[in-house]
Specification:
alpha+beta; Alkaline Phosphatase, subunit A; Arylsulfatase, C-terminal domain; 3 domains; 4-stranded antiparallel beta sheet; 17 helices; 26 strands
Length: about 725
């Protein structure tokens, strides 16, 4: 009897022990748009904050602050895709925010021309929610995306593994895929952008009121209602019975700079000694620092929004963890996609001092971001000074969720959960060795540079374009050997004083770039530093040609002409006739090219409508198969690339390739016993258009569209799943 009793006690204790084990933790990631390193009141180094952020201050007290956290890029698009993919931008292929275009100069006298890069990640790329599904997580995305196609095009959050998020149907606008949370019957409250929605006709004419018909109706605390905040809380409320991952991305504090909260604007005007504005112009021209009452109100608002989410977690019982609130088993991470935006002399926005620069710069002001973590086993009020990057969150979330490491994901990020829990101050790579360096590649006009942080040192290899106009490598000592801050302002270039450090880091940086296979910026023949001899050696394009689906360009060659050393074909499938947004989503994609003597060749992908060769000669200059105007001559908003190429191998080579794919689909369909009547008719129409001269755009586009659809409709054959036929699945004109 005693043995039975003892066994019962042991089993009972084991059961209690098992029951006491907390369930899988929830993960709430809040990425604020453009929040600066010094924008949180409790993080202000001089101890004199202007912006009021009580909720972020509370998270800082209750959690762990990382002082040397970095964004993957100084701008939003590449940072967001890098975070969601766990890779550096050199590996995602997304380098800035206006990708998917033909490379061309910003202006006639610029030194370098940015390379081609993708606009967003293809749907095939595995994002965070897809791996968390392996552990039973439900995932939601609310707010800014900027990781898919242009102008909020496909792929959407729900295309990339999120269970809850926005999508589009038939090119008819965006909506969240839960009728309970996004209720069409309450349409006037369903502002997609919430209270951030740009104010029309000017920023003094959109203050929220108590009117029930006001979509931004003031709440009991006189705060404008914000639908994204409600969606974030609603997702948690609806899914709290399961482990959840919420990626909440407020559109604040990105411009346009304004507020619907008149009371907060009045408060900050008074606090800054600025009269309440009577016209919508700048209230602080030439006054740098934290001097903009509109921006202060926006920081205040996003702090309020974050507070609503955290309050719900703190006040709500956890159904998976009886006796506890949701917050007890939830990691809350707050960060930013890049450094704070400084604005201009006309209207300063924020100030990242003592950091140098801001958004769009590779200096600390553009890359160093706020980063706070609160959660299980996180010691309140602690600080970590080890450099981390947002790409580290992918493997860290996997570790939090108990998902096994997967080398097939090819992650660049490292698991930093031991640092979050205060168990380590060293970032370890999957092989167990210490990560010593973090890299950045930002080849754009605002600050074209390749950058590296390694231990106490930071190397900025400027390519001579953009911020401060510097050219060559700068070396800064960010921290002292004892860990104390040294030159976070990057005021002292030590490249000449420490040539060995500079050269060693530069060699490592160059090796990293070479291994990535990234396309570097091109030299521009219009820059004053280019000699007449170099300019004369650039090979001119002599002729463009095509036969069936093959396209080529012939170029000057000979001993006095530089050889072509790099080439790719860039093509588009969705110019204006295939896009309900009137060409705003036109995207150019890369295809391989073969380099011969005085010639480049490529095969046109099926359904491509226009294409151009993008080449580099032996001296590094950009050579395109057709001359292209610089952006000061013709802006992207004025004229799309498909309208700028006069030849562009328009329509026929891509149609020929599509017809060949259609014939393959017809044969496969007959073998599978499928009805081919619609496909046969579409093929006949396409073949007639291919033979027609001259090309007439509308019937040509109709034939391409019909053949694409006919192949797609032959379900079950491999041709129907061809990725180029399914590139824009929500676009009815495609």
């Amino acid at each position: 009897m005693k043995k039975i009793l003892s066994l019962s006690i042991v089993l009972g204790l084991a059961a209690c022990s098992f029951a006491a084990k907390p369930p899988k933790p929830n993960i709430v990631h809040i990425m604020v748009d453009d929040l600066g390193w010094q924008d949180i009141a409790s993080h202000k180094i001089d101890g004199k904050p202007v912006y009021e952020t009580p909720n972020l201050d509370r998270l800082t007290r209750d959690g762990r602050r990382f002082t040397d956290a970095y964004s993957p890029s100084p701008v939003c698009g590449p940072s967001r895709t890098a975070f969601l993919r766990g890779q550096y931008p050199v590996h995602t292929g997304v380098y800035s925010v206006t990708g998917g275009q033909l490379p061309r100069a910003h202006r006639k006298d610029i030194r370098m021309i940015p390379p081609y890069y993708l606009y967003g990640l293809p749907v095939e790329e595995p994002m965070i929610p897809e791996v968390l599904k392996r552990a039973g997580y439900v995932s939601g995305h609310v707010g800014k995306w900027h990781a898919g196609g242009k102008h909020r095009g496909f792929p959407f959050p729900v295309s990339q593994g999120f269970d809850f998020g926005f999508e589009e149907k038939d090119g008819g606008g965006l909506f969240y895929n839960d009728a309970e949370l996004w209720n069409p019957k309450n349409a006037h409250k369903n502002s997609f952008n919430g209270s951030w929605q740009p104010i029309r006709p000017n920023r003094l004419l959109g203050f929220a009121t108590h009117d029930p018909k006001d979509p931004f109706q003031l709440d009991e605390d006189d705060r404008p209602s914000d639908h994204p905040t409600e969606l974030a809380v609603g997702f948690i409320r609806k899914n709290k019975e399961r482990p959840f991952f919420l990626n909440y991305c407020p559109l604040y504090v990105h411009g346009p700079f304004g507020t619907r909260d008149r009371k907060r604007l009045e408060h900050y005007c008074e606090k800054m000694g600025i009269p309440f504005p009577t016209d919508p112009g700048s209230p602080n021209t030439g006054k740098f620092g934290h001097t903009n009452p509109y921006y202060a109100s926006m920081v205040d608002t996003v702090d309020w929004s974050i507070g609503k989410v955290v309050d719900y977690l703190e006040q709500t019982d956890d159904p998976r963890n009886p006796g506890h609130k949701l917050i007890d088993n939830t990691y809350v991470i707050v960060d930013s996609d890049n450094g704070g935006y400084r604005g201009s002399q006309h209207e300063p926005i924020t100030d990242n001092s003592p950091l140098l620069g801001g958004k769009m710069h590779n200096y600390e002001g553009g890359l160093r971001i706020p980063f706070i973590v609160r959660g299980p086993r996180v010691q309140p009020g602690t600080i970590c000074d080890t450099p981390i990057n947002l790409i580290d969150l992918y493997p860290t979330f996997m570790e939090m969720a108990g998902v096994e490491a997967d080398p097939g994901l090819k992650l660049d990020g490292c698991n930093i959960l031991p640092m979050i829990e205060g168990k380590s101050d060293v970032v370890l790579k999957p092989d167990g060795t210490e990560r010593e360096a973090i890299f950045w590649f930002y080849p754009m006009e605002s600050h074209m540079a390749v950058t590296m942080r390694k231990g106490d040192w930071k190397l900025v290899n400027n390519l001579g374009v953009g911020f401060r106009g510097k050219f060559g490598a700068e070396l800064f000592r960010i921290r002292n050997s004892d860990g104390s801050a040294e030159d976070i302002s990057e005021a002292n270039d030590l490249a000449a004083e420490y040539p060995e450090v500079r050269n060693t880091m530069l060699a490592e940086l160059n090796d990293f770039m070479d291994a990535s296979g990234v396309t570097m910026p091109y030299r521009h023949s219009g820059h004053p530093s280019v000699t007449d001899q170099e300019r004369a050696a650039i090979p001119a394009v002599l002729e463009l040609g095509s036969k069936e689906d093959r396209v080529w360009a012939t170029l000057e060659s000979g001993k006095d002409k530089a050889a072509i050393v790099e080439a790719q074909l860039l093509y588009t499938m969705n110019p204006k006739p295939f896009d309900t947004t009137g060409g705003h989503r036109e995207t150019w994609l890369p295809a391989p090219a073969t380099i011969g003597k005085g010639r480049v060749d490529a095969v046109m992908p099926p359904g491509a409508t226009h294409a151009a060769f993008c080449m580099r000669d032996a001296n590094g200059f950009l050579v395109t198969s057709e001359p292209l105007p610089d952006y000061q001559e013709v802006g992207y908003a004025v004229k799309k690339d498909s309208a700028m190429v006069k030849d562009g191998y328009a329509y026929k080579p891509g149609l020929f390739a599509l017809i060949q794919l259609g014939k393959q689909a017809q044969a496969a369909s007959l073998t599978a016993g499928l009805d081919t009547s619609a496909l046969k008719a579409a093929l006949a129409t396409a073949q007639a258009q291919y033979a027609a001269e001259p090309i007439v755009e509308k019937p040509m586009c109709d034939a391409i569209r019909a053949l694409r659809a006919a192949i797609r409709n032959q379900q079950g054959i491999p041709q129907a799943a061809h990725p180029l036929l399914n590139r824009f699945p929500t676009e009815p004109l495609f």
